[in-house]
Prior knowledge:
Layout: H1 2-15, H2 18-34, H3 38-41, H4 43-49, H5 67-78, H6 85-94, H7 97-122, E1 125-126, E2 132-133, H8 136-143, H9 147-180, H10 184-199, H11 202-231, H12 236-248, H13 262-277, H14 284-288, H15 296-324, H16 330-334, H17 339-348, H18 350-383, H19 385-403, H20 414-431, H21 433-445, H22 450-474
Antiparallel strand pairs: 1-2
Helix pairs in contact: 1-20, 2-7, 2-13, 2-20, 5-11, 5-15, 5-18, 6-13, 7-8, 7-12, 7-13, 7-15, 8-9, 9-10, 9-18, 9-19, 9-20, 10-18, 10-19, 11-15, 11-18, 15-17, 17-18, 18-19
Amino acid sequence: MTGFLGCIEAFSTWLWGTPMIAVLAITGVFLSFRLRFFQVRYISYIFKQTLGKVFSKERLGEGTISPFQALTSALASTLGAGNIAGVSVAIYYGGPGAVFWMWVVATLGMATKFTETVLSLKYRERNEEGEYVGGPMYYMSKGLGWKWLGVWFALAFLVELFCSIMVQSNAIAGNIAESFGISSYIVGLGSMLFVAVVVLGGIKRIGNVTEKLVPFMALLYVGGVLVTMILDIGRLPEVIALIFHYAFSPHAPVGGFMGATIAQAMRWGFARGVYSNEAGMGTAPIAHATASTDHPVRQGLWSVTEVILDTVACTATAFAVLISGVWSSDIAAVNPSSLAAVALSKYFGNYGSGLVAVSLFLFVITTVLVLVYYAEKQVEFLFGLKPAKLSRYLYIAAIYIGAVGGAKFLWQFLDISLAMIVIPNVVVLLLLSRQVAELKDEFFGTPGKYYLKDVEGKALSLGLENAASSSYRKNGL
């Protein structure tokens, strides 16, 4: 059995090295060109229509939850341990240059996640309770007429989610036990009960919780890092130069840093970006499909913002590790994944490591929360609404099993089961990309609607203000 699991682990390590990174990177490049790099050309508009309307009560079109709640629900899944521990490991193995390549793959990933979300909105449908549901299994079935592939995706995703929930809950238990000395059994039970209370309330309750918890946890962590940057602001130009220099130059070992080639910087930067923002994995579109919107592209803009915010969290970790200098210390060789905690404890002592521990707990518990919902939607697609509601309890139980260290052998299959959903999803995205390009052109080019209405409305408002101001001046007021 040990030899078999060793082969599985070796295969999954190889698979999620160059092969899968290349697949996702090439997909991002192709979709970016097909969509004419809209994520760069319209970046100002995207921010104004998403983060600029966070506090707006306006709802355009039909949906189950607000666009912002859909964003925070999707972000709850992407913001996880990888944003803290994963980035630290990437810098240790790939050097500071890995951060640059993480930014590159994030830019490409915006087009991929946008494509997923737009297709998910286009092919979503209402379930028996009147709630909107969607995701890869729906655009595979309805967009291409490949119901069999939608079934494959849902089944493979159910396996991946069961493994992933256990891994995430085990990370919660280990983190709390190490930081605060609380038993894994107590942490597992508490986490399971919290998730159950939220998930059993459906997507509306999940949206209500994530819209409050996700911004708080992100600001808590990123805010802590910003303080360290302010305290050591003089090193910021040096760190930025370090990132760009190491991205294109091989470097020998320095202190605890093991040294890295350009290829290693690219490999670890791409890997961290891909694993963290989840572009191409088909997860976030399930949450975005529930949003109220007047056009699929408008919600797609929120998914672009999602990638940006996730990358900001990754970048925060990178800057903390680099600006503190711990990336090249002897500690790096002992435990690379703990570098963020070490970096913040350098400035805040035990409060710094405590901040990382609390942030990690919040990141992971919200991830588990949304993963259980994703599992329910797969069962609903396969077997209907009633079996889906029953399946919640199985996946909620997986939280406790994982927390206490149960069924660890399943963890070896995590990356392989993930590849089984990513590959078919990416293929379908490429085949349906023309439809997304057409919807994008419709949104940005239809006279009197969507983008042009937003821009022309602002221009008209500005023109009226200028005219009024001119009138006031003319009349000496």
